[in-house]
Amino acid sequence: MLQKKLIVSVISLLMLISLMPRAAEASGEERFGGAGRYETANIISKAGWKTGAKEVVLARGDDFADALSSTPFAAKINGPILLTTGDSLKGSTAQELKRLNASKVWIVGGTNAISDKVASQLRNMNLKVERLAGKDRIRTSVAIANKLGSSHGTAIVVNRDQFPDAIAIAPYAAQKKIPIILSDRNELNSYNSNFLKKVNKTYLIGGDAVLSNSLLKKVRNGERVAGGNRHVTSVRIAEKFFSGSSRPFIATGEKFADGLTGSVLAAKRNQPILLVKQNSVDNTVKRFIKNNNVKNYTVLGGNQAVDSSIGLKLHAPQFDRNSEWLMLVNKKKHLSSSYVPKNLTIPNVRFPFSGYDQKKNLRSVPAKALENMFAAAKRDGSTLYAQSGYRSYQRQKTLFDYYKRQYGEAAANRFSARPGQSEHQTGLAMDVTSASVGYDLVESFGETKEGKWVKNNAWKYGFIVRYPKGAESITGYQYEPWHLRYIGVEHAKYITENHLTLEEYLE
Length: 507
What we know:
about 15% strand; peptidase activity
């Protein structure tokens, strides 16, 4: 039975809730990020060309399709890629050109991309200026390829409108000085076709939706490097061309300026660029991080481009959002009144009451895990009791209605779930207690020997303390050291070690 002192503690807890971030940054992270893409490009330049660069590539920062092919050329001249607006040279970019002590700037794109006014501003700084340009982005890519010089046995083809694949392949292309040629999805035109006739090997980057199978047949000795999406494609590139990578670059696959300017530095360091979302990581990227035992990595862009939590997410376990163990039930995600979990069984553990009761049940897998956990606790001198597991929708309704009558709806909503919002209905949750607290479900359980054992060891058996202290603003419920939720050992270990809630982990 809920005690009045529990309600008092709830009120106290609400006054003490902290809104500070709960996830610590990973110690192996190096980040090159400024207030925006222009400043980020300058920061990357300072990191990669500390003693200066005589020649520099200049691209437009808000429309850089022309620049997608420029990374191999930038690598050839051993200069960074800097960004500017189309009609005026950015002041911070001018300052970086001075720091580099550059003597020549290669402008990528025609006057529609970067105006003659910018070229004049550069000349007024006593810089030589030359354009790498064609009448459109495809012809610009061919012009850059020709400027690379010498004959090329290999070429890389990317979609003219799909930037992520070009960013991901750029470090390899730059390292090997392989030209990057832009193309439409289905057809070559006279410009890129004539160039590709000169090569003996052609890599197409991206799947059929990006560069068609019919196009693959039109190039000489064509080979496709692709995954199911842009993030997976970046991993396939890393696996093929950067085997054993120890410190990959991380860039957003949604905005591309940071990846463009960072690609030359990635090539200098012999590292791939892996693409992520702003605040989440594809399972395939996680698998690459794990398989290559990556401890350190370099992020391109500020937190608005790649969130500060990305380090935790890179090293998080792979998971299927449809996994039965990772079901999220809370005040926002509800179960239907007809939902009943499969494979309910009564675990062979101690209960503080006898006879059959619906709430003794758990699903079979967490039930076995609970048995193992209770046995381990007993060996360590802590005797645990299971108090409440599965509850049907109707039973939860009866329980919530009782608390609402006793304490008022607002108070009840802090410690009891409404019907359909209870984890107990999943068959994956069990409340545990001990004789030292009279078998009650109270906060003081967390301070007992048994409660401390649960906090430190539950993850080893796939359980987490679902409603940790200080997380009410995230979970919607008060601190409950007794409420355990099964999610599997790998996920439970990660959540516990990083002091996360299930909401933070999944969302």
